[in-house]
Amino acid sequence: MKFNTRDIDMLQGSLWDKIILFALPLALTGVMQQLLNAADVVTLGKFVGKNAMAAVGNNISMVGLIVSLMMGLSLGANVVIAQNIGAKRIDRAHAAVNTAFVLAIAAGFFFCLLGELLVEPIFYFLEVPKIVVNMAENYLRIFLLGLPAISLYNFEAAIFRSKGDTRTPLIALATASGVNILLNLIFVLQFGWGIEGVAAATVIAHVISAIILFVELLKSEGVIKLDLNAMHIDKEELFEIVRIGLPAGIQGMVFSLSNLLIQAAINSLGADAMAASAAAFTIEINVFCVVNGFGQAATTFVGQNYGANNIPRCKRATWVSMGLSAIFMQTLSFFILFFAEEILSLFNSDPEVIRLGVIRLWYIVLPELINVAMEGLSGAMRGYGISLTPAVITLICVCGVRLIWVFTAFAKIPIYATLMAVYPISWFITTIFLIAAYSYHIKRLKPARA
């Protein structure tokens, strides 16, 4: 099989350098995705006010809920195509690429419509304060219009990742991020559109990133080339994509659902807490992008080598990914914690917002090492095609622990620090069960599908 200059041969040779080459552009892609949101938060915090900033903060978990499901489905496409490439089933890989593209478009429009219908009930459930509810609703309704483009970009990026190319999606998103920042300034400072302007800028940026990857897929040679004349749904590949991707999406949604619950508790503490959480989340998610990048590296490297029935290399890829993730993540975490106040002040200069933001960063960024195990083990299991188990564990442990915590510990001591403590506690309990599940499944692996 031929590889272009951006492809990575995952089936032979050393692992650590290839995993770094794969994971770091993927982590930077995640950072760029968050930069789209950060640009919104910074622009609103600096030029509109903390209420507008809090309004966007209320949308973070809701947007994450829908986007997580689409990203999970796209991860299913990544695994299926990677396994076919590893097994040298080129026709099946082509079929999976075509199927993933059609599914991306369908899922994007479906969730766009569903989201628009659910906006008002969700804000009612969250008890969003009246002072920010109208701004929050306007932002979300405009943002949802971009879901088809977001879905398409994620599936297109998954197709590139399946053969080891994580740089092309990064270039596309970096271009879109630059456009987003420029449009934010034009729409807010020049046209005075406020929160509606930053939402429109974000939608345009997502459309640009999807178009760039679409053109690249049409120009590609080999296994991932997109042929519009041969576009169709292959039932076998669709089943595999959904079987692996849907539980992965649900796993991501579980975190967003639990964050919705926590967001409702944050709302009860006032606008300062909401603004602080919006700013701190925008910072801390970049640490998670590093962890997630190496977790997806485990998924793809395991997927290709499992397709080739090279189980020992699958195991090595898992542990190498986790080790490298810990090193890079800890380095970034120390930097963020050391300069926490200075970084938070870039979003908002209010002393109380900064104080609460620092509390959140210490509770979430410092124990992020636990997430290395969570993402690494979950990613490896998905690479083997085992996607339901980590999803169920996450659903029970993360949602269960956070639900109990909010209605017991936080209800008894309703302060910001009490609420933030639930993050590392829920991570730790989930990781214990994931370790047990990984050990169980790795002893009972079956050969990859023929």
Q: Tell me the overall shape.
A: globular
Total count of domains: 1
> How many separate helices?
17
Report Rg: 21 Å
Major β-sheet annotation: none
Mean pLDDT: 88
Distance between the termini: 19 Å
Q: Which structural class fits the helix and strand makeup?
A: mainly alpha
* DSSP helix fraction: over 70%
How many beta-strand elements? Answer: 0
Helices and strands, in order, run as: HHHHHHHHHHHHHHHHH
Write a concise keyword list for the protein shown above.
450 residues, mainly alpha, globular, 17 helices, 82% helix
Describe this structure in words.
The protein has 450 residues and is mainly alpha-helical. It has helices at residues 16-47, 50-86, 90-126, 130-144, 147-162, 167-190, 194-219, 235-267, 271-307, 311-338, 340-345, 351-364, 369-383, 388-407, 409-412, 416-420, 422-442. The radius of gyration is 21 Å and the shape is globular.
List the helices and strands and how they pair.
Blueprint: H1 16-47, H2 50-86, H3 90-126, H4 130-144, H5 147-162, H6 167-190, H7 194-219, H8 235-267, H9 271-307, H10 311-338, H11 340-345, H12 351-364, H13 369-383, H14 388-407, H15 409-412, H16 416-420, H17 422-442
Helix pairs in contact: 1-2, 1-6, 1-7, 1-9, 2-3, 2-4, 2-5, 2-8, 2-9, 3-4, 3-5, 3-8, 4-7, 5-7, 6-7, 8-14, 9-10, 9-12, 9-13, 10-13, 13-17, 14-17
Short synopsis of the structure:
This protein is mainly α and 450 residues long. It has helices spanning 16-47, 50-86, 90-126, 130-144, 147-162, 167-190, 194-219, 235-267, 271-307, 311-338, 340-345, 351-364, 369-383, 388-407, 409-412, 416-420, 422-442.
